[in-house]
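Hi everyone,

Forwarding the result from last night's run.
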Amino acid sequence: MSTIKIAAVTDDGQILSNHFGMAGQYLVIEAVDGLIVKQEIRQKPHHAVHPDHSKEHVHSDQLHEDMFAPIRDCQVLLVGGMGSGAHQKAVSAGLEIVLTGGVIAEAAQSYLSGAAISNDLRLHRH
């Protein structure tokens, strides 16, 4: 039996957030042998809110690590977009990152079937 946990970054539990740092939640999906058996919402710590990218903001290493604390038991992270610092921390935390968009259920099924393609253009370079 093969079990995997997938964390999806979201604000509403349905759609992948396009900005990892601004999203408020993770939808954690547990799948056994490719079938989803459980889902739960976990709160995601935020970093300082910045309304637009024209304003400079600081990303601390400790903050990024704290943002991954609620999903330490997950192996995969589905996200619509994220900054390079958060991406590096996610990889260091052992997460497989899939940069994609849209409906979480569809993205998770795509990943589980082996059809998911990560789009590096969704990686924000600050």
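The beta strands are 3-10, 25-32, 35-43, 76-79, 82-83, 96-99, 123-124.

Cheers,
N.
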